[in-house]
Design brief:
- The chain has one helix and nine strands; from the N terminus they run E-E-E-E-E-E-E-E-E-H.
- It is mostly beta strands.
- The chain has one domain.
- The strands form two sheets. The protein has a seven-stranded antiparallel sheet with strand order 1-2-3-9-8-7-6, with helices on one face. Strands 4-5 form a two-stranded antiparallel sheet.
- The chain is globular, with a radius of gyration of 16 Å.
């Protein structure tokens, strides 16, 4: 993880997670250390391989208009890291806004990891950070809940 993140849910660095009814999940790590934000998200969409849709809201004059847009957009290349063949997306929505995001498909599901581009970590460094994160991923098989 990029410094100062620790990848420990419940650790000293801010973290959060969400699991939706469709079993999609989001795990986030955030540090605002010394006023500089470092933010990494992990996402999974079990049983789905399509890029999810987000709602984009804009104010046009006196009215608010909502429209659907892909949550990950503007593909900007592909990388292979071990068995992962990922696409880099540079225009993303929701908690991945202002992030670079790599998404890939594995066994009928879509997965993604993203990092916020900020002054501390420029675009080139964020790409290196994300590649390093992907090299360190470990497959965790699903478990039945008791």
């Amino acid at each position: 993880m990029p410094a100062p993140l620790d990848a420990k849910i419940g650790g000293p660095v801010a973290d959060g997670y969400s699991i939706k009814r469709d079993r999609s999940y989001w795990v986030s790590f955030l540090s605002l250390d010394t006023g500089d934000e470092v933010h990494v998200n992990f996402r999974g969409y079990p049983g789905r391989t399509r890029v999810p849709t987000c709602v984009e809201t804009q104010t046009l004059g006196n009215r608010t208009v909502s429209s659907k847009t892909p949550c990950f957009a503007n593909p900007a290349g592909r990388v292979t890291v071990g068995t992962i063949h990922a696409t880099l997306y540079t225009v993303n929505q929701d908690a991945d806004q202002w992030h670079l995001l790599y998404a890939w498909r594995y066994r009928g599901s879509l997965y993604a990891v993203s990092e916020h581009v900020i002054s501390r970590y420029d675009t080139a460094q964020v790409k290196r950070n994300l590649l390093k994160l992907m090299r360190g991923l470990v497959l965790v098989p699903p478990q039945k809940q008791s």
